[in-house]
Amino acid sequence: MARQTSGRGPLVADRRPIRGQGSSRGSGPGSRPVPARRRRGPIGWLLGLLAGLLRAVFGAVWAVSWRFGLLAALVIGGWVLWQASLLPPATSLVDGRARGSVTLLDANGQPFAWRGDQFGGMVTADSVSPHLRNAIIATEDRRFWLHPGVDPIGIASAIRINLSEGRGPFSGNGGSTITQQTAKLLCLGRPFDPARWENEAAYEADCRRTTLWRKAEEAIYAMAMELRYSKEEILTLYLNRAYLGAGTRGFEAASRRYFDKGAADLSPAEAAMLAGLLKAPSTFAPTANLARSQDRAALVIGLMEEQGYLTPEEAAEARANPARLAPTAAQPLGGAFADWVMDSGPEFFTSGTTEDVIIRTTLDPRIQRAAEQALRSVFETRVRAGSQAEAAIVVMSADGAVRAMVGGRADGAGRFNRATMALRQTGSAFKPFIYAAALDLGYSPMDIIDDSPLCMTIAGSGQWCPENYDRTFKGPITLTQALAESRNIPAVLLSEQVGRDNVRAIAEGFGLSGDLASGPALALGASESTLLRMTAAYAGILNGGSAVEPYGLVDLTILGDSEPVMGRSGGLRERIIREQAARQLVWMMWRVVEEGTGTRARIPGWELAGKTGTTQGARDAWFIGFSADYVTGVWMGYDDNTPLTGVTGGGLPAEIWRETMVRVLDGLTPRPLPMEGPAGGGTGRFVDPGGLLAEGTGQPFQPTGDPAVDAALEAAFGPPSGSFDGGTPLDPGQEAVLDALISILSGQ
């Protein structure tokens, strides 16, 4: 029986095509014929070979690279995790300064100068002004909230900009994120080590060094920071560690330095200015160039507007009203004084401090501005344009407290301070110490001395014949007139009479302890001194004859301590001359201003005393004088010792002194000088341009204080009826009496 399959037909094999009749493919309806296969030519074989080779190489590279990439990713990931595990709490990294700061306060307790690395205290990303936070992000890292510490888009953009501007791909814009910049500020976690770096400057330079390897390290450290800290903590570190010019570290210090306000209170314009400093702090610092800083701030405002942090109206308002400096920053005060105070304290508390130090000083800002304005005014109105002549000013109280100091025409921090550093010949400004020695020995201001030609034989040098400035001789004159007219021959003669050793001892006692001349030229100011020391010596005359040590530092306190660690080192010292001698000398110096070489220093309504000084060859010109309240010294000359043209101490220096004192005394009540004139002295002229006697009022003639000498003078010459003009010659009898008197007075 045949088997039946249910539901299926019989199995039948497909019919094979007969060779030569073509394939069944394409023979049916709708099918296409298959083209015959071509044989490869030599080029085809070559191309095929190359393609196979490329596939093999690519496959091999891919097989290695994905494994290597995976390994590198694991290594980098492990490195990042390891680095993150080593990072300390963010709060411990806020203040990482290698050195401390010094804030100097004036006599009113207000800061006027800063040294070292200023840190205004910790701020956080949440505590600062939102405008500041937005300005920083808009300027430095617009994708800060999105990237993991490294921003590939930013790096690519920076490379494109660098290449388009003709620089190398990694020269110029670096594309660093805020996190990477913070990593650099932290020096990748490496603290300052004196054994590795010579000083803090070398440490910071090494931290800023840019190489491909360093950039790679920064990237690793930045990603580790992103793992360890929140975005707010990273931004907080950046806000506190960034350097912003003028010695400020952190935005709080910079805000107070430039705007005298905290970082929480910044306006959009102020925030934009501070954010603009990050690109180049020293270049864009507003204290260096306000206009340039404002231009940079305008660019930042544009970025803030573009990224939606400011409305068009707010941006326009910020541009129309750019940030301006606070008065204390706009008008830097007392740079030379601040440098001097820093040098006067111990280095470990000043320039080398690792603490934050507060120094109270004696500086009076009103007087400091007065001195600066006076110097500027005289040079603008009385000195030819382009002159390289320099000048310096010191103002102090009678106890040596320095109230103002101008170190030169371009006064400022870090410059050569001519008030404290320049040793210059004192010239006739030294003469008061000769008269101080004489008065202390009992001489009287009205004693007679001979202003006649004088020659002395100096051992090893031959004959020395001093001359007066005007090359004339007035014969017998009073000590008062000799000082008032700054006569050289009487000064030399008096120095020899009282003894050079006594003169030198008096000068050294008042603080002129340099290399004082040993010969008779001592009397003509051949020795050198600084303006500060000379002014302090004159303060000793004003205060009644006691030496003073000039000082500017009142006390020094570590920030946070309640008690100072040191007090002032200067002030009144031992007595050098009798008080009566000092008061008599003040009277004689008063006559210098009233009718002598210092008349240009007179100020109506005030009793003022002083002394002019001009050195040999007119290389230095001085005027130092005082009121009852302040001693002021002025020096003028060239740094290279070029002679001054047409300038003496009674000229421009006296005018600078007067302009200074007019401003210093403005608003004060005049007080009498502590002086004592000769017995029976009046208030008229005591200096006669013609010679021996001067007109006094209150008595027929001005007594010398010695009854015998007074009686002899009156018997020989009669009471003076007016100013002696030297036109009537003395008769032989009068000459004989005069010679005898001079011999008696000179001790011959």
Automatic annotation (TrEMBL):
This is peptidoglycan glycosyltransferase. The chain crosses the membrane at residues 43-62. It holds the Pfam family Transpeptidase. Residues 1-37 are annotated as: Disordered. GO terms for biological process: peptidoglycan biosynthetic process; proteolysis. InterPro entries: Beta-lactam/transpept-like, Glyco_trans_51, Glycosyltr_51/Transpeptidase, Lysozyme-like_dom_sf, PBP_transglycosylase, PCN-bd_Tpept. Keywords: Carboxypeptidase, Glycosyltransferase, Hydrolase, Membrane, Multifunctional enzyme, Protease, Transferase, Transmembrane, Transmembrane helix. One of its GO terms (molecular function) is penicillin binding. It is an enzyme of class 2 (transferase). Residues 120-304 form the Glycosyl transferase family domain. It comes from Rubellimicrobium thermophilum DSM 16684. Its EC number is 2.4.99.28. In the C-terminal section; belongs to the transpeptidase family. In the N-terminal section; belongs to the glycosyltransferase 51 family. Gene3D superfamilies: Biosynthetic peptidoglycan transglycosylase-like, DD-peptidase/beta-lactamase superfamily. Pathway: Cell wall biogenesis; peptidoglycan biosynthesis. Residues 392-628 form the Penicillin-binding protein transpeptidase domain. The keyword Glycosyltransferase applies. It catalyses: [GlcNAc-(1->4)-Mur2Ac(oyl-L-Ala-gamma-D-Glu-L-Lys-D-Ala-D-Ala)](n)-di-trans,octa-cis-undecaprenyl diphosphate + beta-D-GlcNAc-(1->4)-Mur2Ac(oyl-L-Ala-gamma-D-Glu-L-Lys-D-Ala-D-Ala)-di-trans,octa-cis-undecaprenyl diphosphate = [GlcNAc-(1->4)-Mur2Ac(oyl-L-Ala-gamma-D-Glu-L-Lys-D-Ala-D-Ala)](n+1)-di-trans,octa-cis-undecaprenyl diphosphate + di-trans,octa-cis-undecaprenyl diphosphate + H(+). One of its GO terms (cellular component) is outer membrane-bounded periplasmic space.
